[in-house]
Amino acid sequence: MTRKLKAVTLLLIAMLLAFPVFAGGNSESSSDGPEPIKIGLTAVLTGDRSLEGQYSRRVIEIVEEEINGSGGVLGRPIEIVIEDSLGTDIGAVNAYRKLASDDDIVAIITPDSSNDGMAQSPSALEFRILTTAQGSSPTLRDMCNNDNPYLFQIRTCDETLCKALIDYAYEEFGPDAKYAVIHDTETSSNDQARLFTEALQAHGVEPLVTVPFTTGTKDFSSHIAIIQQSGADVIIAAAFQTEAAILIQQIRSMGIDSPILGSNGFADPVTIGLAGELCDNVYSGVQWVPETTNPKGAALAAEYQERFNEACGKSAAQVYDNINIICEAIRIAGTTDREAVRDAMSTISDYHGAITTYDCRTNGGCGLGGLLVRVTKGQAEVLGEIISEKDI
């Protein structure tokens, strides 16, 4: 190396040491900021339920901006770490365990399925980490209350929503209406069918037939034929969004215009988007519709619509509330210690979210209400608010 080239080389090295920005950025300033508080989310990013993951990803953008733009939590920004649960119990467990194994994860949110939440429950107990469940099944509620102090069912329990819908229908259609029940056999829908039936029985009414089907069914013609032959004039149905949309389409294509009393998925934007105006004359007791009368929820729906040019689905609203409630527990705890955050969650008794008010003093059924809606011309019309009280 010549003396001149050596001198130039030494000069460049000196410049890089003196001005680290030349070497790829100011590493000192990036490390000066507080470390983010990490919250895990298991959501379905692939497969038939992938719209759930799409809603989750999009609402994360909104909630992170809101919280971090207001100073974060305990003076630190939040960061949501998402893992694909694949829409299966095994996928949900694997995604959960990957998140829980990261010591920086303070709490974890389960997918929008009671089955997934129940499958993840043993891992929550093993890792001793606050876990919020998006499922609404009473089976999940009882598991939260009796078996796992780390698992909190944030959603309103189906027991509240199903009873409210049947009580409304009994008044709307009269005591002589004849009912048929059709339902998916997965846990949530099976529980909902049972709750609908019990609510009917409380009015002295028995369904004429109950027709089960398995998740993933695409052809309901034989199931619907049984309902037609029964002479029922009101159909009660329980299923996830995809099956709900297909069922509605096929009921209407077979010339049946009877009222359909659906579980919470039947008035979801996903279902309405798939089935369109065939959803007319569908009634549901729901956690959420974008037409919500809740001011905080209406603001979220408007922001989501403006930002992504589509209606805000239930999965998005649920993730929004789950994240905010977890952040509230962290604020109360004053620390990110997992045990302290879990303990703080159980003190929350009057948290007003985008969907409803939450009381987490018992782990199950933290959500206290929902909405009665009717779908008309592809839009959910709010008929009234569902309000329950928690028995402590």
Q: What does this protein look like?
A:
The chain is an alpha/beta fold and 392 residues long. It folds into two domains: 34-156 and 292-369, Rossmann fold, CATH 3.40.50; 159-286, Response regulator (Rossmann fold), CATH 3.40.50.2300. Helix content is 46%, strand content 18%. The chain has 14 helices and 14 strands. The chain has helices at 3-18, 27-32, 50-69, 89-100, 114-127, 138-146, 158-173, 187-202, 221-230, 241-253, 269-275, 295-308, 314-333, 338-345; strands at residues 37-43, 78-84, 105-109, 130-133, 151-153, 179-184, 209-213, 234-238, 260-262, 282-286, 351-352, 357-358, 369-376, 379-387. A seven-stranded mixed β-sheet has the order 7-6-8-9-10-13-14, with helices on both faces. A five-stranded parallel β-sheet has the order 2-1-3-4-5, with helices on both faces. Helix 8 (187-202) links the parallel strand 6 and strand 7 (209-213). Helix 3 crosses helix 13 (314-333). The longest helix is centred in the N-terminal third of the chain and has 20 residues, at 50-69. The N and C termini lie far apart (82 Å). The model is unreliable at 1-30 (pLDDT under 50).
How would you sum up this structure in a few lines?
The protein is built from 14 helices and 14 strands. It is α/β, with parallel strands linked by helices and 392 residues long. Strand 3 (105-109), helix 5 (114-127) and strand 4 (130-133) form a beta-alpha-beta unit.
